[in-house]
């Protein structure tokens, strides 16, 4: 079990870096409206589910405070996105996170104590950096005016969450 946790913690930054490099390469051309909405929906689900884990597993008051705010902010963004998509027939949002995000939630759920706090903080830093890059690319070059406005409005919020995630520390 300790070896599995250590292996997870050692490989998590590499996996996230690979995802971020793919995302930055794709940032040159924004995704379709359907793909953008799906990626944002998955990111908000991951945020809410990982925040729930943090509220249950972390002993760090700073991480718990962050998780409360993150859950609220992600729920608000998800609700706003659902309202936009509800008026349309060309976009259907996923009803659960994708395999990569489910794996990250499962891996976080297997950790305890300081190992959880460190992995959670790293996951939030990377997830919010990735989401901010997606929102920025779509706000700048997106093809759907309504989703483009959503991206521009949501971007400062997720940049702020990314900045707060940088400061997260495990409980002493």
Automatic annotation (TrEMBL):
UniProt keywords (A-Z) are: Signal
Domain DUF4142 residue range list: 32-168
UniProt cross-references to InterPro entries, sorted A to Z: DUF4142, Ferritin-like
Asked whether the keyword Signal is assigned, the reply is yes
Keyword presence, Signal = yes
User: What is the top-level taxon of the source organism?
Assistant: Bacteria
Q: Name one Pfam family in it.
A: DUF4142
Signal peptide residues are 1-27
PANTHER family assigned: BLR2558 PROTEIN
Protein name as catalogued: DUF4142 domain-containing protein
Organism of origin: Bosea minatitlanensis
């Amino acid at each position: 079990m300790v070896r599995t946790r250590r292996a997870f913690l050692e490989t998590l930054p590499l996996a996230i870096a690979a995802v971020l490099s793919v995302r930055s390469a794709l940032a040159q051309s924004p995704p379709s409206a359907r793909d953008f909405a799906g990626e944002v929906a998955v990111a908000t689900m991951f945020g809410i589910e990982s925040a729930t884990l943090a509220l249950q597993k972390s002993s760090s008051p700073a991480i718990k405070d962050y998780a409360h705010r993150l859950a609220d902010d992600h729920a608000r963004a998800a609700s706003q996105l659902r309202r936009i998509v509800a008026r349309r027939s060309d976009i259907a949002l996923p009803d659960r996170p994708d395999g990569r995000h489910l794996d990250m939630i499962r891996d976080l759920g297997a950790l305890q104590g300081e190992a959880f706090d460190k992995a959670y903080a790293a996951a939030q830093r990377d997830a919010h950096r990735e989401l901010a890059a997606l929102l920025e690319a779509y706000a700048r070059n997106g093809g759907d005016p309504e989703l483009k406005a959503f991206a521009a409005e949501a971007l400062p919020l997720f940049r702020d969450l990314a900045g707060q995630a940088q400061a997260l520390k495990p409980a002493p």
